[in-house]
Amino acid sequence: MIKKISVETSEVWGHGAMLLFSLCVSVSYILGAMVANDIEPGAITAARFLIGAIVMGTLLFISKNLKREDFKKPWRFLILGLSIVIYFVLMFEALKTASSFSLAVVFTLTPFIALFFEYFLNKKVTLRALFAISLGAMGAIWVIFEGNLENLLAFKIGYGELLFFWGCVGHALYAILIPVLNKGENAASQTLGTLSAGFLLLFLIFTNDIVETNWLSLSPLVWITTIYLATIATAFTFFLIQFAAKRISASKVMAYTYAVPFWVALGEIIINSRFPNANIIFGGLIIAFALLVLISDNTRAKI
Fold first, then answer.
1. How far is CA 248 from the centre of its chain?
2. What ranges in 182-235 are assigned the alpha helix state H?
3. Does residue 123 or residue 15 have the better pLDDT?
4. Cα dihedral sign, 136-138-141-147
5. Tell me, what's the pLDDT at 164?
6. In angstroms, how far is CA 116 from the centroid of its own chain?
7. Nearest to residue 277, comparing CAs of 27, 152, 24, 99?
8. 227 neighbors 219 (Cβ within 8 angstroms)
9. What whole-number distance in Å separates Cα of residue 233 and Cα of residue 35?
10. How many CB atoms lie within 10 A of CB 121?
11. Cβ neighbours of residue 89 under 8 Å, at least 6 residues apart?
């Protein structure tokens, strides 16, 4: 009985972490859309990773939890770093031509992508989870193609949305690999290793963009966005997703991406007085139902 309660409590904390994750991520889309054309994707992503690594490293040092043994086999962090770098860089590139809401909707396809990866890793998935994730993907596709069958058949989708889809593939792979590549280190240490490796990769790949950026002349909004992305949308959300990934399945972790469009839509209403149309509302209701089904999945039937 005690063991059962402990597991359930652990899952509750995992769900709570991912709900907070969805809120933090939604703000990054809104802010990112405001500054996407003011700084190169590689440069702002490198800055957020560097600041995030410094913040996380400082916290670990102060709490005396910075242990050398937590960073054994550093190739693990390079793989995690590359996966999440793909997501962040493509997100900013996509925001140059796509709206924050449309990308938030594309992001809801991530659970379906994660389910695809889980299949090849022989992870067990409940029938209810399969149904909910598939339903959520249908809701996302409805919104992306504006509820128009002709758009779907002609695969009429914007460049930004298509580009960001590949970023979501990187994000899904990242979530899947977190528990696989963890060697006993805590979430904070794994986050620090991932951020540090990610910054190294970004510096090597986007050296010109980083060096040529006039950092001192950037607008206050760009700096506010960069600091938010580094501390909240990077370091903190990395910690949340790694914390949750050890307590609930990867498909459930990614299920909380379904909540992101609602936070973004709410932000658009408050900031720009922009209300969603009927197609978006209908697709959103499908996504909301999928989220409720998925997080209530406590069955043991496996496929």
1. 16
2. 187-205, 207-212, 220-230
3. 15
4. negative
5. 93
6. 17
7. 99
8. no
9. 15
10. 10
11. 41, 42, 45, 167, 202, 206
CA 126, 127, 131, 132: dihedral to nearest 10 degrees?
-30
List the beta bridge partners of residue 302.
Answer: 126
Backbone angles phi, psi at 51, to 5 degrees: -65, -40
Provide the β-strand partners of residue 126: 302
What's the rounded Cα separation, in Å, for the pair 110 and 175?
10
Tell me the C-alpha distance between 302 and 45, whole Å: 39
Strongest mean pLDDT among 30-39, 91-100, 120-129, 196-205: 196-205
CB 106 within 8 A of CB 168: yes
Q: How confident is the model at residue 5 (pLDDT cuts 50, 70, 90)?
A: very low
Q: What is the Cα 234 distance to its own chain's centre?
A: 9
How far is the C-alpha of 203 from the C-alpha of 120, rounded, in Å? Answer: 32
pLDDT of residue 186: 84
What pLDDT was estimated at residue 224? 93
Q: Is 262 helix (H, G, I), strand (E, B) or coil?
A: helix
Distance (Å, rounded) from C-alpha 255 to C-alpha 294? 7
* Cβ-contact 235, 52 below 8 angstroms: yes
Q: How far is CA 174 from the centre of its chain?
A: 9
Report the distance separating Cα 56 and Cα 65, nearest Å: 11
Own/partner pairs, 125-130, CB within 8 angstroms, 24+ separation? 125/249, 125/251, 125/302, 125/303, 126/297, 126/299, 126/300, 126/301, 126/302, 126/303, 127/299, 127/301, 127/303, 128/293, 128/294, 128/297, 128/299, 128/301, 129/249, 129/251, 129/252, 129/294, 129/297, 130/303
pLDDT digits (tens, 9 = 90+) for 155-165: 567 788 889 99
Cβ–Cβ under 8 Å, residues 48 and 184: no
Positive or negative, the CA dihedral 142, 143, 149, 155 is negative
pLDDT value, residue 283: 75
Return the minimum-mean-pLDDT range out of 1-15, 42-56, 104-118, 161-175.
1-15
Locus of tokens 């040529």: 212
Question: Do residues 195 and 49 touch, judged by C-beta distance below 8 A?
Answer: yes
